[in-house]
Amino acid sequence: MRSARPGFVAIDFGTSNSAVALPQGEAGVRLVELEPGQPTMPTAVFYRADTPPQQLEAERLYGRAAVAAYVEGTDGRLMRSMKSILGSSLLDQATDIGGGRSVRYRDVVTGYLRHLKRLAEAEAGQPLQRIVLGRPVFFVDDDPARDRQAQAALETAARSVGWTEVQFQYEPIAAALDHESHITREQLVLVADIGGGTSDFSLVRVGPSRRGRAERRDDILGNHGVHLAGTDFDRHVELAAILPLLGYRARRPARPGETAREVPSAVYFDLATWHLINTVYAPARLAELKAMKAWYADPRHHARLMVAVQERLGHALAAAAEQAKIDVALTGSAHIDLQALEAGLAATLREGQAAAALETDLERIVQAAAETARAAGVAPGDVDVLYFTGGSTGLQALVQRIAAAFPAAQQVRGDRFASVAQGLGLHARAVFGAAH
Length: 436
What we know:
Elements: E1 7-13, E2 17-24, E3 28-31, E4 40-42, E5 44-48, H1 56-59, E6 61-62, H2 63-71, E7 76-80, E8 94-98, E9 101-104, H3 105-124, E10 128-135, H4 144-160, E11 165-170, H5 171-180, E12 187-194, E13 199-206, E14 220-226, H6 230-242, H7 266-271, H8 283-290, H9 299-310, H10 314-331, E15 333-337, E16 346-350, H11 351-376, E17 385-389, H12 396-405, E18 410-413, H13 419-432
Parallel strand pairs: 1-10, 10-11, 12-17, 17-18
Antiparallel strand pairs: 1-2, 2-3, 2-4, 5-6, 5-7, 8-9, 12-13, 13-14, 15-16
Helix pairs in contact: 3-4, 5-13, 6-10, 6-11, 11-12
């Protein structure tokens, strides 16, 4: 007989992708089909430019449909990486979405969560008022106040769409719970959860005798993380392989008796940062960039830059960088078609170039893994398992670098996009009880 208690759900609200888990049977969980045949969905929202203000909520596109509308050239505004703005001053700022309309970034987050709630309730066939939300070890590095602010903002958004009980669990710990459901002996597991926005590590004691307990604090031996991951990799790839063709690090015309200086870099950093791309399209910014034509020794650089900003190609360039990163990981090189900027224009990214571009970030991530073990008082050789999850663990160079720091550990690959949601669902069962 169904309990009268409100239903519950678990959500992995990711920087790049999101997933939703519901209880199933006596002890299991199942992922909600968020799009046809897909248990995960890009964390993306698209506003059509011609949508009347009173229909903004109903007319939004989400996930793959949002990305497709943008790629197909539909007039409107795409927003991704909304999780990145939690804890930042941008959260309460409004951003232009065309037609004289604007929307607060906070409302974009709220609307996306409301959409996930509707999908989950349709699947569950009942209202869902209790939720476990995943969170990174650090929303914001080295700033506890802003980190608390980020979690509070996410909780406020969740409550505003109808969840009355809100719990949080660290995403890498959720991944450890997913791993625990498949093992037969106790293990020390270092979870590497490397997604779109953060690289999080947790050292967790797991085993059959611990499975299903609501309180697992004593099993969490250490956690650490850095605000570096897939979107940062994409940014570095774009700066290394694409934006130099638009004048990044190019020189100004030399003046008599002076060494030629670089052109200003701010516009290129913004073009390579998802949540800042649209700031480049502001009329005042466009006028400023047009006026900089004489600053470029090579006029082709300025011409390509102006095409990128006037045609609003920033997100397309970022997507090209992301695909190049994936292609290099798979085949060792990538061909980047840039004909939208100039007929016949292309760039090439090779494995060595990508490795050099990412070196600083990879080293910081490996150090975060090592620091997690040190903080727990565990020697690297005592770690039984390295459990990899998150979309960016598809980058083999990163996995190899982490594994080298723990040479005795078995490498286990979780579902890169769904293991956190599944673990959050198991935690939700333990916290809220089996009744659903």
